[in-house]
Design a protein that fits this description.
Shape: elongated
Structural class: mainly alpha
Radius of gyration: 24 Å
Order of helices and strands: HHHHHH
Oligomer: single chain
Number of strands: 0
Distance between the termini: 63 Å
Number of helices: 6
Strand content: under 5%
Helix content: 40-55%
Length: about 140
């Protein structure tokens, strides 16, 4: 399962922008081959950071990786002319991946790609059974 799809790019950045960035033949439509290639490049780039920490491919895809994949693919769609804003988002995505690779940031999955139990890492408490509880008090009050 890819980290992001063409529709994810359209949802995040708008169809007009995706057409402008991918339509090399001036057809007025999204070039699905160009978009697929850039999404593949983004996935390969992401995997290069995750390969030492996670079993790939991750399934289900963590939401954070979908956003990162879109930002990386968008940057690559701009080729050699990204805006300052697009370049900054790309740099932020790479910084995020570096933190994931170091283990400073978690994706919300274990190394096999499974979501951890909700209480993972939380402190556990135990106590003896209470001396008095509602049921025991009923015995005394009738």
């Amino acid at each position: 399962m890819p980290y992001a799809t063409q529709q994810d790019l359209v949802d995040r950045f708008g169809e007009t922008e995706v057409i402008q960035l991918s339509d090399r033949a001036n057809t007025g439509a999204i070039d699905v081959d160009v978009v697929a290639a850039k999404l593949g490049d983004a996935e390969a780039e992401i995997n290069s950071y995750l390969v030492g920490r996670y079993t790939l491919p991750l399934n289900p895809v963590p939401a954070a990786l979908q956003r990162v994949a879109c930002d990386i693919a968008r940057y690559h769609l701009f080729d050699d002319r990204p805006t300052e804003y697009v370049a900054q988002r790309y740099k932020d995505a790479i910084r995020f991946l570096e933190l994931v690779a170091k283990g400073s940031v978690q994706l919300g999955t274990d190394p096999e790609g499974n979501a951890p139990p909700s209480a993972a890492g939380a402190p556990e408490y135990s106590a003896r059974e209470p001396v008095f509880n509602r049921d025991k008090l009923k015995d005394f009050t009738g």
